[in-house]
Amino acid sequence: MFKRIDPFGNPNVGVYVRVTDTHLFVPRGITEQNVRDVEEAFGLEATTVSIGGSPLVGSLVAANRHGAVAADFATDAEVQVFRDAGLQVMRLAHTRLNAAGNNVLANDKGCIVHPDLAAATAQAIGEVLQVPVQRGRVAGIPTVGTAAVATGRGVLCHPLTTDEELSFIKKSLHAPARIGTVNHGHGLVGAGLAANAAGAVCGSRTTGIELGRIEEALGFLE
Known about the structure:
The chain is an alpha/beta fold. The chain is built from 10 helices and 15 strands.
């Protein structure tokens, strides 16, 4: 199911929402209607959380069904929210690249991380998410979580993603990968969209043509 919402008046849904096939995390302060919309789209009950008091949950957390990676300034109480949901958790510490949602692109089959993350950090991310990890870029962009959205059914990538990068993404995440945009032509689809195997939620500016490309890329037309 598809929904178009603007949390806090902002069309960049992926900045605020982190969803997997099994878990849905939304920020404190989001409206009740927005919560109902995302729960209906994803087929999951929402868990409310913040990261260091920030509502930017999508930017600061990466996750799959096994685990979550959060920015290092997440408090103990905030980390406990993810543990209570049954997830392994790690803080992305000892690096300036601590906005985990921006720097990690993951599904339940694989993971791509910012190319400048240390090898030990990448390995630790893989252990928490229980998937193989590769370092790479999407459309030449190192903040891979902003430039793509991945589910087990497909990956939507920045429109300037090269064929070589698409091939790398497909192999790393074990899912088909295609290009597209959100919010009337914006290429940072990871910031503008949240998705799982059941549905997708994007900003209100997303056009019907863009929705069609999203449906195709994320496997909703099969």
